[in-house]
Batch of 2 targets.
Target 1
Amino acid sequence: MGARGEAFLGVDIGGTKVAAGLVNDNGELLYKTRNPMNCSRGADEAVNAVREAIDRTIRENPEAEVRAIGLSSPGSVDPRTGTVVMATNLPCWKNFGLAEIIAKQYGLPTELHNDANAAGLAEAVWGNGVGYDSVFYATVGTGIGTAILFDRQVYLGRTGSAGEGGHMSINFDHRGPRCACGKPGCIEYLAAGPGIATRARRRIESASGNEGAKLIELAGGDVSKITGETVEAAWKAGDRLATEVFEETADYIAIWLGNIVDFLEPDVIVMGGGVGNMLSPWYPRIREYLRSWSVNPRAGEIPFVQAKYGPDSGIVGAAALVVHPGQYIMHAPTH
Ligand SMILES: [Zn+2]
């Protein structure tokens, strides 16, 4: 039993996997599958991984009428030309015209966008951003991606690179290692999963007594094996050091969002991603602390909500790009 009727095929491309699925025009995920992704064997092999995921989706849903294909990719993407410009996790595609290849092969309208923009669009059109004119979307996971949406349209900027809010620095004097992008003090470097793990390891190194004992135990006694998930597990087991690391993460996010509110004053802030979900017990703290990092006297009124779409946000977001062709995208002028 596969999906039936009109459907939109969403493809979520990552550095290690390709996820694909069918979504109807109500934003319901009807089917999904995934495939390994490996850029180390070259650009064509990586395209084949995308094709395999699309082929399987079509093959296993013979009664679905696929209308269009939406593709989402990490990194810098030019949606006007359907090009992956540069993605750290997909080094085999540089200035690579992926959308055209897929459109030609399947004879279907195809759009390609940055993954956070696509996931943010899904929230604005079908998720917890519905009913708001302006939406600020943030996905916090192994990195931090953001999207700015006005009236259910993705704000792209001059060349399609707007909305890289994860690389806003909140501490230019940061003395530790720099963010992978080269800047010091990016919110991504401080508050995404690897940053949480790094801060936990540093705290353990300077801790006295048996502080963080639970965290070390959960990492199998090896501090270097601590990940964001280990810190979460230790927090849930009542470890104080792990709890403090999460409190600090929540505070970094609040400082960052205070800037966002001053700059954009969105109608709603929607937070997704694995770490974004882990942080949900701290949402009230973030909302409260955000007020002292914003000059906006009404900052505290802005709803701060969890995303509707969890791990499938990439598939649903990619499908959202093509459900009403052109309608949801604020096209940047061409040069
Ligand atoms: Zn950065």
Target 2
Amino acid sequence: MSGRTQNVNNTRFNAEAAAWDSNPGHIRSSENALKSILHHVPDFTEGKGKDIDVLEIGCGTGLLSFMLAPHVRSLVGVDTAEGMISAFNAKIGALPNPETANLAAVNVLLEDADDVHVQGAAAALATRRGDSRASEHAPHRFDLVVSHLTLHHIPSLPAILETMFQSLKPGGWIALTDFEDFGSDALFFHPKSKREGVERHGIKRDEIEMMIKGTGFENVKVATAFTFSKDVDAEDRLPERNLDFPFLICLGQKA
Ligand SMILES: C[S@@+](CC[C@H](N)C(=O)[O-])C[C@H]1O[C@@H](n2cnc3c(N)ncnc32)[C@H](O)[C@@H]1O
């Protein structure tokens, strides 16, 4: 990512972090993403969710992370905006027993599966749950990688898919949700004031499917996850209006 794009994104998300969870749209879209993940990922449909360790790219304040955590063994979130991670950590601190939480988040641009921050967080969660052989499992690898509403900010999709692939155990899955580039109206998902730092206006169905296959994933499937209705601003000659944005779930398994 160019340093400038990253700075634009970090500045925007640091500023939005404190109020992020008070936007009902943010909560609604994470609830829909959770529903789709639980519906599509075999670990959940086969009742094995509580055995799995999850990595989340672009966890933000943890909306999806805190919804997913009760369904899994552990979750490590990463996010490039320090403000988002502070909000995530404040929510951990507000839990009745923060020291037993099965989730953690780190402020890092993840480009390497062996990243020390991610490895440290995964090891700490393993130790916390009483896994005395935690250090023998290093480097830690995950059973599932999720990412919600973040792919459209990431400049190189092949690069992040490769990092996800390396971060998974054999047999592990990706389940990535983001809005679809369904045509020219996809531009209006972001108001004009938030378009700088947006790398692409949604995910192209055929393109992401090809990239996931090209990374080496098997059992690849890209499906409509849900439709998200959103009021969009008046712009140029177009009035303020409500638009339906399709969201995709992008699935693949590391053999
Ligand atoms: C639209 S927000 C979504 C946050 C969260 N997933 C949610 O749905 O509430 C996008 C998030 O991606 C983060 N982000 C942007 N580029 C990233 C990257 N390369 N790696 C990790 N996080 C990134 C931003 O800091 C921001 O928190």
